[in-house]
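[audit] Reproducing an earlier prediction to check determinism. Same input, same settings, fresh worker. If the C-alpha cells differ from the archived copy the diff job will pick it up downstream; this log only records the rerun itself.
[audit] input (348 residues):
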Amino acid sequence: MHTIPKYEGWMGLDPSAGQGKMVWQEYEPKQWEETDVEIRITHCGICGTDIHTLRSGWGPTLYPCCVGHEIVGHAVRVGSQVEKGIKVGDRVGVGAQSSSCLRPDCEECSSGLECYCADMTPTYNAKFKNPDTGEVTGRTYGGYGNYWRGPGHYVIPIPDAIPSAAAAPMLCGGITTFAPLIHNGAGPGKRVGIIVALSRTNAKMGDAKKMGADEYIATDHDKDWNKRHARSLDIIVCTVSSPNMPLQKYLQLLRTRGQFIQVGAPEERMPGFNVFALIQKGAKIGGSTIGSPKEITDILKLAADKKVRPWIQERPLKEANQAVVDFEEGKPRYRYTLVNEVNVNAKL
C-alpha cells in the first residue's frame, strides 16, 4: 500500500517572495485520481516565470504559491489509467503545463496543441478542475519542494542519456525556444535570430560564439546595428521580458516575409512600432508559448541523440531564496537548477 508523502516546499506568501522571502512549509496536493502520477522531486530549474509569479508581476498571484515548472524526479506512484508506460521508479519530468480539457472535440487538444487549450492549467498558481463537472480538485503547486502530483498525460519520461540537472531547464526554457522554430519554418537556408545572437552588451559574446552563434549583435554597443544588419534574418525568437526592448529596430532586421516571434512576457505593455516595418516587407509578428507533451518528448530525444546540453549551474534547494535573488540579478550562466539533495540521495 502506498504511503502518502508529506508535501512541503518553498512557498510564496505575498509579493515579497520575489525578493527571496519564500517560506518552507507544508501544503495539500490535489485529490488523487487514477490518471495521476506522483513524483519525488530531485531537480527543478528556475524560470523567469517563477519570479514574475512570486511578485505578482503578471497579476495577483494565488498565494500561498510554490513555483517551479522544470521538474525532474522519480515516479513513486502511478495511477492505473496512466498511459505512456510509466512505472514506479522511472525518471520523469513535468514542464509548465499540468492539465487541459483533453476532450476529443477540443480543437487544440485533439491536434497535439494542448498548451493552447482554453482550459490549459499551469503547473503552479492555478486550480485543477474536473473537465466534466468543473469541480475544483485541488491547487497546482510546483517543483520548489519534495513532491509533485498531477495528470500523467503531462509527465514526460527522461532519456537515460540526459542528466537530471540538464533535463530540467529543457522542460520550459528549452521547449519555449524550440517550439517556435518548429512552427515557423526554421531549417536549412534560414537565418535565425538565435544563430545570430542579439544581446544588449558584449558580455555574453564569448559564450554565444561557443554555443554556436555565427554572429553577435550588441544593441547597446554596436552603433547603427539595426542599419548594418537590416534585412538579414528570416526569424527572430525574442526572449526579452523588458517592455523597453528596441522593437522597431528589431523589426528592421527581418528579411522580406520574415517573422518576429515573441516568447518573453513583459509585465507591462510592449513598445509601439511603425506598421510600415511589417507592411513594406510582408513581415509578421507572432507569439509562442511552451510546447505540447509530444514536442517536449521530441526535444529531449533530440538532445539525447545529438548530445546537446544547456549551460547550467546547480544550486541546493535549501538555498532557493538566494538563488531567486541571484537569478533576478542576471547572475546565472545560463540557467539555475535547484537540487533537492535529500531526494537525490534517497532510495527508491
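[audit] rerun output stored. Observation attached for the diff report: Residues 164-183 form the longest helix (20 residues).
[audit] end
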